[in-house]
C-alpha cells in the first residue's frame, strides 16, 4: 500500500499528539514506583501534598494551587485506607490554603494511631505549617522553612485589622471595619485554640517543653511578622518545635518527579551533577 506525503503528515501529527500522553504515563509510573519504594523502606503509608505554582493564567492573572477541599477529601481517604498502626509519612510542599481543608486534614492526622512524620524539602507555609504541627515528627531540609499561621481576612491580616482599633478612636472607625475587627478577633481566637490542641494533644511531652506552648502560639498566630515570613530551621527549633534536620535522598528524587510546569525560557539552569564529580581542567588551563 503506497503512502503519499499527506499520509506522512497525518502520521506525524498523530504521533505528536500521543507523545504528551505517553510522557505523562511514564512519569506517573515513575512516581508510583518511587512512592512504593519509599513506603517499603519506611514501612509506612506515604502521602504527598505538593503545590507547584502553575504557569497557566486566566485573563493574564497567574493561577496558583493551594490546600483545597479536594485535597482534604483525598488525604482523608488515604488515611482511612491506612491501618491504624501503620505510620504515615506526609511530604509537604505548599504555600497553605483553606482553613477548613487544613483543619480537616490536621484532625485526621492527630487521630491516626500510628506515628505521623512530616517531611518538608522546601517550604510548608501557613496551612502547611499547621499540618506539620499535627505530626509526631517534623523532618526538614536545613534550608527549608515554615511560616506563621495567623488568620487572613481577604487580603488583610486579622492582627492588622485589630491594630486599627488601637490606633484610632472608635468614633473615627467605619462600621465595616468594626465588623471586620470583630471577625478578626474571633478568627485569631479560633486558630489559637486549634494550634493549642495540636501542640498539647499530639506532640509527646519529651519532644516539646509544655512551657514553650504559649510562646509557640504567640509567635505563630498573632501577626508579629508578615504572613509570608520564613521561619527557618534554627528559629523553629529555638521556638521549641521538634525539628529534625536532614532528609533522605529519596525525598529529593520524589520532588524531581513533580517539576514546575515548563515555560519557554528556564529561570534557573545548571549542569545536573555533583560539583565534586565535575572533571576539572589542569591549573592554569581554560582561563582567558
UniProtKB/TrEMBL annotation:
Cross-referenced Pfam families: SDH_protease (PF01972)
Coiled-coil stretches noted in the UniProt entry, renumbered to this chain: none
Show which residues constitute the signal peptide.
none
The family database entries (Gene3D superfamilies) matched by this protein are listed as: 2-enoyl-CoA Hydratase, Chain A, domain 1
According to UniProt, the name of this protein is: ClpP class periplasmic serine protease
Q: Which organism is it from?
A: Laspinema olomoucense D3b
Q: What is the lineage of its organism?
A: Bacteria, Bacillati, Cyanobacteriota, Cyanophyceae, Oscillatoriophycideae
Amino acid at each position: 500500500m503506497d503512502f503519499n506525503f499527506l499520509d506522512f503528515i497525518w502520521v506525524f501529527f498523530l504521533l505528536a499528539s500521543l507523545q504528551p500522553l505517553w510522557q505523562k504515563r511514564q512519569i506517573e509510573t515513575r512516581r508510583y514506583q518511587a512512592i512504593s519504594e519509599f513506603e517499603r523502606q519506611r514501612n509506612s503509608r506515604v502521602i504527598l501534598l505538593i503545590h507547584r505554582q502553575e504557569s497557566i493564567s486566566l485573563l493574564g492573572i497567574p493561577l496558583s494551587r493551594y490546600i483545597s477541599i479536594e485535597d482534604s477529601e483525598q488525604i482523608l481517604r488515604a488515611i482511612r485506607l491506612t491501618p491504624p498502626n501503620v505510620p504515615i509519612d506526609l511530604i509537604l510542599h505548599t504555600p497553605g490554603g483553606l482553613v477548613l481543608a487544613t483543619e480537616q486534614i490536621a484532625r485526621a492526622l492527630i487521630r491516626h494511631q500510628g506515628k505521623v512524620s512530616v517531611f518538608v524539602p522546601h517550604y510548608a507555609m501557613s496551612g502547611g505549617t499547621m499540618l506539620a504541627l499535627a505530626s509526631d515528627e517534623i523532618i526538614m531540609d536545613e534550608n527549608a522553612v515554615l511560616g506563621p499561621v495567623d488568620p487572613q481576612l481577604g487580603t488583610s491580616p486579622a492582627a492588622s485589622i485589630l491594630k486599627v482599633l488601637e490606633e484610632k478612636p472608635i468614633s473615627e472607625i467605619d462600621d465595616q471595619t468594626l465588623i471586620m475587627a470583630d471577625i478578626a478577633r474571633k478568627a485569631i481566637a479560633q486558630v489559637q485554640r486549634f494550634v493549642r490542641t495540636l501542640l498539647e494533644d499530639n506532640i509527646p511531652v519529651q519532644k516539646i517543653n509544655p512551657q514553650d506552648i504559649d510562646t509557640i502560639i504567640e509567635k505563630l498566630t498573632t501577626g508579629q511578622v508578615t504572613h509570608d515570613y520564613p521561619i527557618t530551621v534554627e528559629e523553629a527549633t529555638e521556638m521549641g518545635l521538634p525539628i529534625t534536620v536532614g532528609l533522605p535522598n529519596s525525598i529529593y528524587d520524589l520532588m524531581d518527579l513533580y517539576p514546575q510546569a515548563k515555560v519557554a525560557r528556564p529561570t534557573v539552569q545548571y549542569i545536573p551533577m555533583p560539583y565534586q564529580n565535575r572533571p576539572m581542567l589542569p591549573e592554569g588551563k581554560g582561563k582567558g
